[in-house]
Specification:
By secondary structure, this protein is mostly helical. It has helices at residues 5-16, 18-45, 49-81, 105-121, 123-133, 138-141, 154-176, 182-185, 190-209, and strands spanning 86-87, 90-91.
C-alpha cells in the first residue's frame, strides 16, 4: 500500500511518538536524497571506462566539474547525517539524535551502536571534508601536511550508506514491522537516459560526417 509523504510521516509519529517519528521521517527523506545523488554519480562515473570515455568525448570539462561537485556534495551529506547532534546552540539533523528519543532500551542501545559504527566508518570522509571540501587546508593544498589526506573510496561510501540504512531500518522494523530499500527505491534512471542521449547524439554526428556510411571515426579521433 502506498502512502503520501504526509501519511507516511503521521504513520511514523503514531508508531514511534511525536519526536522520534518526526525525526525518523526527516532522516529518511535525507537518506533517500543521498542515495539518489549516489545513484546518479555511480551511473555516470563508476560504470566503466566506455562510459567515462563517452563523457570525455562529449563534454570533458563539464563532466569533470559535475564529478567534483557531486562527490563533494555526497561527502558533505554523509558527514552531516553522522555529525554531532549540536553545533553550539544549533541542532543538527543527524542519526545521533535518534537513540536518546527511543523508549525501548534494547532498541536504543542497538541504534546507538549502529550510529557509532557509522560515525567511525565516516571518520576518513569527515577528515577529507574538513581539509578539502568545507575548508581548504593550506598544508594539505601544498602537500606539506604531516598526515596524508584520507582516501574516500566507493567501497567506503557504500559501507557507510549501508550502516545509515541499518540505523533507520532497525527503528522502522521495530515500530512498523517494515523496512525501506533506500538503495533501490529512489533511483530513477535519469543518468542512464542522459548517457543514452549522448550516445545517440554521437552516432548522429558520425552519420552527418559520413553520409555514405563509410565508417569513419568521429572528429574527436577517438
Amino acid at each position: 500500500m502506498g502512502y503520501s509523504p504526509e501519511e507516511y510521516r503521521e504513520r511514523k509519529i503514531q508508531a514511534m511518538g511525536p519526536q522520534p517519528g518526526q525525526l525518523h521521517f526527516e532522516l529518511g527523506n535525507s537518506l533517500a536524497l543521498l542515495h539518489l545523488k549516489w545513484a546518479q554519480f555511480t551511473a555516470l562515473f563508476a560504470a566503466g571506462q566506455p562510459v567515462l570515455d563517452l563523457l570525455d568525448r562529449t563534454a570533458r570539462h563539464f563532466f569533470l566539474v559535475v564529478r567534483i561537485v557531486l562527490i563533494d556534495d555526497i561527502i558533505l551529506h554523509l558527514c552531516r547525517l553522522s555529525d554531532p547532534p549540536k553545533s553550539g546552540r544549533k541542532e543538527n539533523l543527524t542519526v545521533l539524535h535518534l537513540s536518546p528519543l527511543l523508549r525501548d532500551p534494547a532498541l536504543a542501545a542497538r541504534v546507538r551502536e549502529l550510529c557509532e559504527r557509522a560515525r567511525a566508518a565516516l571518520e576518513p570522509a569527515r577528515e577529507y571534508r574538513n581539509r578539502q571540501v568545507a575548508h581548504t587546508d593550506v598544508l594539505t593544498l601544498r602537500a606539506e601536511h604531516p598526515d596524508p589526506l584520507p582516501a574516500v573510496t566507493r567501497e567506503s561510501i557504500e559501507g557507510a550508506l549501508e550502516l545509515l540504512r541499518d540505523v533507520l531500518n532497525s527503528v522502522e522494523s521495530h515500530y512498523l514491522n517494515s523496512t525501506t530499500a533506500y538503495e533501490h527505491g529512489f533511483a530513477p534512471r535519469d543518468a542512464e537516459r542522459l548517457l543514452d542521449l549522448l550516445r545517440l547524439a554521437e552516432e548522429a554526428d558520425v552519420a552527418d560526417q559520413d553520409p555514405d556510411g563509410g565508417g569513419s571515426r568521429p572528429a574527436t579521433g577517438v
